[in-house]
């Protein structure tokens, strides 16, 4: 890999918080700046369980990847909005089950590219690639030469959209993006999605969150169950269907599980027929 650290670092804007770095902070990582920590703390002041939600969301990613690689035999993954490398990345989980698994990561934070060496490790049998691209331009992702060199889009793919769609603000904004990505994948592929929601929040906390959203103090756009469910229209939901991420296939998780209001994040996996 060519060393572009200097050029990439020069593009890092440390004056504006970024979701990947804020998420990294909530997960206990060190790849974040003061502005990211301030933003994270401001959100957590209004919604104290935000760090719990981040951790549970990450655990959902692990369980979904293990399900796809271990139970239904998916060997290709497209992980969009991957964020900064941490423990149990998608390729590590998938390749531990099936060493020949191939994974393409996509993110739009230059800092992720700086750390891409950690993502671009792979078993000799498999392959991982990283693309710096934007979810809002799915066509560019799907036609990127690095994706086409890594994944065979004529064969099933696990599309992972975990904690990324809620950065597409506006009612209905996520649906066309998801539809374009899903339409490019063959039958037998799977879609895994999580998205923040206010459905489980007490009314006073929901009202504070609405004010923060209107004031631009948070960029996490919550979606209710109906809008979240619409993302899976025409697909076959995997049991238990649409549930809080802390409740999705958690038989082996420690007890007690966090409550829905502590997580406030829907999760689901579905098969593309």
Helix and strand topology:
Blueprint: H1 5-9, H2 19-26, H3 34-46, H4 50-71, E1 76-80, H5 90-97, E2 102-107, H6 110-114, H7 116-119, E3 127-132, H8 138-142, H9 145-150, E4 158-161, H10 174-183, E5 190-196, H11 203-214, H12 225-230, E6 236-237, E7 243-244, H13 260-263, E8 265-271
Question: Mind explaining what this structure looks like?
Answer:
The structure is a single chain. This protein is of the alpha/beta class. The chain has a single domain (5-271), classed as 3-Layer(aba) Sandwich (Rossmann fold). Helices cover 40% and strands 14% of the residues. It contains 13 helices and 8 strands. The chain has helices at residues 5-9, 19-26, 34-46, 50-71, 90-97, 110-114, 116-119, 138-142, 145-150, 174-183, 203-214, 225-230, 260-263; strands at residues 76-80, 102-107, 127-132, 158-161, 190-196, 236-237, 243-244, 265-271. Strands 1, 2, 3, 4, 5, 6, 7 and 8 form an 8-stranded mixed sheet that branches. Strand 4, helix 10 (174-183) and strand 5 form a beta-alpha-beta unit. Helix 2 crosses helix 3 and helix 4 runs parallel beside helix 5. The longest helix has 22 residues, at 50-71. The chain starts with a helix and ends with a strand. Residues 1-9 have low confidence and may be disordered.
Compact description:
The chain has 273 residues and is of the alpha/beta class. It has one domain: Vaccinia Virus protein VP39 (Rossmann fold), CATH 3.40.50. It is built from 13 helices and eight strands.
Shape: globular
What characterizes the major β-sheet?
8 strands, mixed
Category by helix and strand content: alpha/beta
Number of individual domains: 1
Helix content: 25-40%
Uncertain runs are: 1-9
* CATH fold-level name: Rossmann fold
What is the CATH class? Alpha Beta
CATH 2nd-level architecture: 3-Layer(aba) Sandwich
**Oligomerization category of the chains in this entry:** single chain
Averaged pLDDT: 91
**Gyration radius, rounded:** 18 Å
Distance between the termini: 38 Å
Distinct helical segment count: 13
Q: Hey, roughly how much beta strand do the residues contain?
A: 5-15%
């Amino acid at each position: 890999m060519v060393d572009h650290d200097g050029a990439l670092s020069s593009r890092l804007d440390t004056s504006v918080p970024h979701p990947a770095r804020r998420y990294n902070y909530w997960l206990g990582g060190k790849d974040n700046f003061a502005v990211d920590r301030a933003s994270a703390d401001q959100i957590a002041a209004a919604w104290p369980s935000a760090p719990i939600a981040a951790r549970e969301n990450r655990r959902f990613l692990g369980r979904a990847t293990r399900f796809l690689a271990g139970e239904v035999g998916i060997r290709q993954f497209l992980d969009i909005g991957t964020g900064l490398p941490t423990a149990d990345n998608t390729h590590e989980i998938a390749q531990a089950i099936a060493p020949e698994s191939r994974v393409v990561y996509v993110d739009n934070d230059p800092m992720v590219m700086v750390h891409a060496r950690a993502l671009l490790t792979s078993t000799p049998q498999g392959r991982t690639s990283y693309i710096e691209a934007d979810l809002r331009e799915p066509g560019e992702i799907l036609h990127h030469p690095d994706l086409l060199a890594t994944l065979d889009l004529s064969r099933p793919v696990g599309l992972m959209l975990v904690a990324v769609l809620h950065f597409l603000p506006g009612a209905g904004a996520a649906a066309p993006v998801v539809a374009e990505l899903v339409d490019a994948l063959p039958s037998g592929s799977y879609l895994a999605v999580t998205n923040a929601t206010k459905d489980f929040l007490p009314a006073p906390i929901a009202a504070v969150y609405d004010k923060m959203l209107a004031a631009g103090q948070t960029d996490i756009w919550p979606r209710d169950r109906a809008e979240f469910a619409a993302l899976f229209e025409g697909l076959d939901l995997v049991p238990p269907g649409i549930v809080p991420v802390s409740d999705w296939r958690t038989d082996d998780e420690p007890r007690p599980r966090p409550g829905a209001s502590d997580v406030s994040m829907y999760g689901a996996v579905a098969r593309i027929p």
